[in-house]
Amino acid sequence: MNSLDHLKAGQKAIIMSFANDALSSKLIEMGCLPGELVSLSKTAPLGCPMAINIAGYELSLRKDEAAAVIIELVA
To answer: Which of 8, 61, 68, 75 has the fewest C-beta atoms under 10 angstroms from its C-beta?
Structure first.
């Protein structure tokens, strides 16, 4: 399984779980729910933060936050 920080611009994935329990509640409050479709829209020049599309809105995450989101790529 991959984590969200490895997603490339335009790729889509489904959120499967979280690697960090402490961070998972914050991510869930922001709409990052298991089963949600997510795509990477852009990243900052140095790779942090990353802008993702989820549930109809754009959300910015730090690279360490994105690394805690376990995903499965969608073909």
So the answer is: 75
Cβ-contact 69, 14 below 8 angstroms: no
Which CATH number characterizes residue 48's domain? 2.30.30.90
Residue 68: which residues within 8 A CB-CB, separation 6 or more?
3, 18, 19, 20, 23, 24, 27
pLDDT at 31 over 90: no
Q: What is the number of other CB atoms lying within 10 angstroms of the CB of residue 30? A: 15
| Residue-number span of the structural domain to which 27 is assigned | 2-74
Residue 47 or 50, more confident: 50
Q: Are strands 57-61 and 50-54 parallel, antiparallel or unpaired?
A: antiparallel
